[in-house]
Amino acid sequence: MSIHRTVLALSALLTAAAPVTAQGVSNLRIMAPAAPGGGWDQTSRALQTVMQNEGIAKPVQVFNVPGAGGTIGLAQLYNSKGDGGLLMTMGLVMVGAIQTNSSKVDLSRVTPIARLTGEYEVIVVPASSPYKTLSDLANAWKATPTLAFAGGSAGGTDHMLVGLFAKAAGVDTKKMNYVPFSGGGETLAAVLGNQVAAGVAGYGEFEAQIKAGRLRALGISAPKAQAGIPVPTMKAQGFNIDLANWRGIVAPPGLTGSEKAALVSAMDKLHASKEWKDTLKSRNWTDLYMSGSKFDVFLKLEASRTRELLKDIGLVK
């Protein structure tokens, strides 16, 4: 081998190894597979701030690759095989978008690192609604399957929750009347304007109106009662539903064991830091942390559950 080729080969090896150092991770890039300002972007930039301030990784760059529910970014991540200095923020919305957009790349093709945060969903009705409980709404829905529910985009977390509620209530999921809106403000207006029977969103989107007494929250999709949220769980009311709009972190395929371990360790350190705990509190994010092999298993189960649910709803064949 010539000296020139030897230098090039050594340079390539050093470049590949650069993200993992004795101190942790350096030259880290985090992809937010959506436009600036949304949940994935906010999560990515919060990670950037805490990781740099805590010395977990330096420098940390955030960049946006919007489009198709995150699947454009997912394809780009897949094509960055072996890049141990690249992470992508993602979540349940992407799990669904992979199915509804018939993405050629799914989450079995990436390296799971950690689940970070989440928000539980609530079903609300106007304060003047005749439905006082989730059972009241379920009984009315069984009697009138065309009862309309408002929420976010088709196939998203809100739509999934309505599908789960339909199954638990004994309503045909393929006949349910789900009205998708592009933003929480439109959903809120539809509910308050009595254009629909009920609305679905993350608790935070309806919190002010619930506290003001304009909306009645009938149930929250959490596994147990949530501190500071005076809404009964759907489970406690006889509907076996547990759904969180969670967000997590994945890396490209083809990482070495040590590269993956370094990234998991970085997330573990982030989660243990006081600044991250303060960030969760200030942003009202629910801590749903899970890393390493546990997150691997969770992702597989979540992909399977989402696929079956979207089939039931009629959005996926």
Total number of strands: 12
Helix content: 40-55%
SSE sequence, one letter per element = HEEHEHEHEEHEHEHEHEEHHEH
User: Unreliable segments (pLDDT under 50, ≥5 consecutive)?
Assistant: 1-19
**Global Rg:** 21 Å
- Morphology: globular
**Helix/strand/pairing class, anyone?**
alpha/beta
Distance between the termini: 54 Å
Keywords:
single chain; seven-stranded mixed beta sheet; five-stranded mixed beta sheet; globular
Can you give a write-up of this model?
- The protein is an alpha/beta fold and 317 residues long.
- Helix content is 43%, strand content 22%.
- The strands form two sheets. Strands 1, 2, 3, 4, 5, 11 and 12 form a seven-stranded mixed β-sheet that branches. The protein has a five-stranded mixed β-sheet with strand order 8-7-9-6-10, with helices on both faces.
- A hairpin with a 2-residue loop joins strand 1 and strand 2.
- Helix 4 packs across helix 11.
- The radius of gyration is 21 Å and the shape is globular.
- It starts with a helix and ends with a helix.
